[in-house]
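Folding Problem: From Residues to Backbone Shape
Fields: amino acid sequence; protein backbone structure tokens
RECORD BEGINS BELOW THIS LINE
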Amino acid sequence: MSLTVFIVNKSYPTAGLALLKKTVQATVVPYLDYEESSLKEIKNSIKGYDALIWNTKHRLTGEILDLAGPRLKVISTMSSGTDHIDLEEVKKRGILLGNAPQVLDDAVADIAVGVMIAAARRFKEGVKEIESGEWKYGVQWMLGQDIAGSTVGIVGLGGVGQGIVRRLKGFDVAKFLYCGRSDKPEASTLGVQRVSLEELLAESDYVILACPLTDETKHLINAHTLNMMKKTAVLVNIARGGVVDQDALYEALKENRIFAAGLDVVTPEPIPSDHKLLTLPNCYIVPHLGSATINTRNKMATIAAKNVLLGLEGKPLLFPVI
């Protein structure tokens, strides 16, 4: 009997699918995340597979793992983050789990710089005025914030954070700060100083969130920490929506307690079209485009495929989480 792999979202790139089909039987759920039948189809069809590629925002729970049954040996995400997977439930069943880190670092770092500039230079307001025929002139029109000479604080100096620093070196940033759970050996080479979160928030003109979503980082940016930031500061989130208390962010932006925010990630996703954050002129949101390049997504799919194929062969995963 051939080995079988279940892929839970039909958007899985053909680069990964082609690799899988060389040696295993691959089945793809014919729905996208946001389609009503998606989760129901996953639950109805998941039983009896040897491996699972969890390329969806739906949470992988103990209930779903029970439905999958005892034949399941290995799981891989297509993402770097694993906050959508119940790690304890996977671990206690002795199932291998892999992810796809590093490969998306450059693409996400690009988006971070993009939304940073867009928010700081008021792209949302400017485009709206063009489209409404209200383009004005004058030396005091649509003034934003400089990057040159600024202090940039990065929460989480992993691969993405380091990529952001490398890109911003060309913008003549005066000082780079970071905070995190541990010292990063790359920090000295990059010229980044480790400080406390409180110091980072108080000193930074740009606060960039590039950390994983954990119990420790959930709502790390909240009413209290937003009040530590400069009135001229710009907040950038390319981590996960849950790192920010969006109600508190809305109030801070509405009351101009910080200058602007640029968000690639929100909660929930997709964000409802009537969400209050979308009404703010100083909140620039893009729809989680961080890793959304053709090359990056193909690489992510290939890594996920290699993870499960290696696991099925009894070999170490390319990028093991468990």
